[in-house]
Each structure stands twice: as structure tokens, then as C-alpha cells.
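Hi again,

Forgot to attach this to my earlier email, sorry! This is the prediction with adenosine-5'-triphosphate bound. I've pasted everything inline since the attachment limit keeps bouncing my files.
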Amino acid sequence: MAAITLNALAHTYSDNPTKPEDYAIREMTHVWEQGGAFALLGPSGCGKSTLLNIISGLLEPSNGEVLFDGKRVNELKPEERNIAQVFQFPVVYDTMTVFDNLAFPLRNIGVPEHKIKSKVFEVADILELSDQLKRKAKGLSADQKQKVSMGRGLVRDNVSAILFDEPLTVIDPQLKWKLRRKLKQIHEQFNITMVYVTHDQLEASTFADKIAVMYNGQIVQFGTPRELFEKPAHTFVGYFIGSPGMNFFEVELKDTLRFGDHEITTSDAMLTRLNAMQPKKITVGIRPEFVHVWDGKNDDAFKVDVDYVEDLGTYKILSFLFNGQMMKARLSEDQKVPSGQIYVSFPEQWTKVYVDEYLVEVADPVITQSEETHHAN
Ligand SMILES: Nc1ncnc2c1ncn2[C@@H]1O[C@H](COP(=O)(O)OP(=O)(O)OP(=O)(O)O)[C@@H](O)[C@H]1O
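C-alpha cells for the complex follow:
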């Protein structure tokens, strides 16, 4: 088991890289702590597989270091890194039995046969493969084959980490949740560092304690599913996480934040910070879940036009035009379905401000004891 550190790591497939876009992995420093269950989440082509292959040693990075428990492993071959990797498509030897498939990594390193037997039985039991051990792998279903692939990673005692590269792609939807639960159980039982690559936010948040969101070769946020939802550190996280994603609109800084004729409420501390930054582009984001839709007229709220309401069973998505821009609000099942002109507001706590796509944060105002007493009264 190991902590995996990526130190000033970068990778390009180009022979002559000249600009950031030439890099599949842009320089990053990142730590996967020992024993954690992590997900690496991002759209197709953002660099997930490249990063995983660098960790496992299948690919040599152009720059930077990979460290396991603080020890540089760049020069170690994949088989010397004690990393198990489970790919999209199961890697099994069809002509061998399930037992022999599971025993393979142990036989390779000369483990005595009696030890192999007990280890294979233990892992087969966890993966619910005990009654399949004598079968040839060829006849197994895709999910059983994928379990054998995972099992091959788990039989070795000294495995530092298990890397999963979209392991459920070929699994039937109704079996996916079962395998996912199994992975979670294995993580709890073995306390192994696990990194799970996916482009599916549901898969990421059901598996991982912490998710690294990757975009254009960079990890733009590393946080719990809740942090990614409540406090997206980058506009891409706001857009990619959530269904539908965050509403964004570009504002101007003129004493206050303005979107057309509308003033967007924000703190004085935020305005001071923004004035100091002199940003070229300021974007405001609010999640549909946090847009407040008023039942009736409210002079403190924005007057907007309803475009349409989509009924999704247990909730509804209201689309409305705000200063000519389409935005969305999530309505609960029992909420009245509005039409025509309605009033919405954006609670300040959930209204996030981004400069150059990154979240701008200001410290919460310090409340002194006397103020607290005053508020309490
Ligand atoms: N062998 C290669 N040679 C050249 N470019 C490559 C190679 N492998 C990947 N790339 C490029 O590097 C970038 C990152 O690809 P990578 O496969 O790591 O992304 P990914 O997030 O895993 O995508 P996917 O989910 O589609 O597998 C992409 O632009 C891709 O085209």
C-alpha cells in the first residue's frame, strides 16, 4: 500500500511541444493519500488514461516524478511497481481456468503452491467466484471476466495500489451497481489505495471518497462529492458535475456586479478582492438547485420569463430567460409550476464568482463576540 505523489508531472505526445495545448498532462503536483478510494473524473480526451499509465509505468512521463511513499519510481518497470491495473476490457487468459488466471501473478513470482491456493480461494470468495474456479475463462460473462481481472490484482499481498480504467464499460447496467458495491467492499477490507477512472459522475461519487476532476490535462479540483457540488473550484466542475450543471453568466464590475440592468448581490469583501484583481472576465455561477423561485411577486427578486418546464418525475427543471440568457432552476415535486413572468433570486451563499474560470474566495467575515451577542438578541 502506498501514497502516490505526482511531482511537477507533465506529459506530451508531441516531439516538439511549444504551447500548453501540446501537453496531454499539463504540469501538476498531486498526492493520492495512502489507502484512499479516489476517482479521476473527466470527459473523453482530458488525459485520464495517460495519467494512469504514467502511474503504473506503462508510459514514461516527459517531465516530473512519480513517487510511491516518497520513493521515486520513474525508473521502475510496471511489474516492479506492484501496481494492479484493471482496464476497460477484461484481460484474462481464455484457455486457462479461473483458478489458474487468479494464480498467474503469484506463480510468476514463485509463491509456493499451497499459499497460492489459500490466497486464490480467499479472493474468489470475496468476488463470489468460488463456484467458477474450475471453469475455463472463455465461457464466462463479461462481468465475471472483469471480476477475474480484478482478482488478479488482489491476490498479491504487496500490491501498492489498484488503478481502474473505466472498469464497468462492458458490464450490463443492472450488474454495474453490484460490481461497484463489490469494489467498495474490497476497498474497505484491504485498505488499498484505489484510483478509479471514469467520465461518469455517478460512478465517481458512489465509489470515491474524493474525486479529482480533470479538464484539459489538469486536475482542476480535488474534493469530496459534496465539495464539488457546493463549491466548484473551476467553471468546468460546475458545468460537469450536477444534472443539469451550474448556470453561468458573465458580469461587469461597476461598483457592484452587474448583469445587464441587474445587480448581483455579493459581499463588500468580494468587491474589494475583485477590484484588486482587475479581472478581464468575471463569471457568476449558481446551481439550479439553489435558485430561489418565488411563489408570487417579490420586489427584491429578479423578474424573469419562464421558457418551459420539464417534468422529470421526482423533480422539475424550470428554464427561464434572465436578461436574455437561458438559465435553469430545479423545482421540487410539490412546488407550484410557474408560467409567464416570475420572480427568482440567487442566495448570496450559493452565488459563486469566477475569474479566468477559477473560483474567487474571500474569507468569511469574522464575527466578534459582541456582534454575535447582538445578533442573538
Ligand atoms: N499514443 C498517443 N499518441 C498521441 N496522442 C495521444 C496518445 N494517447 C492519447 N493521446 C492524446 O492525449 C490526450 C489525452 O488522451 P487520454 O487517452 O489520456 O484521455 P482520456 O481522458 O483517457 O480519454 P478517454 O476517456 O477517451 O480514454 C488526447 O488528446 C489524446 O488524443
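The two ends are 54 Å apart (CA to CA). The chain has two domains: 4-236, 244-359.

That should be everything now.

G.
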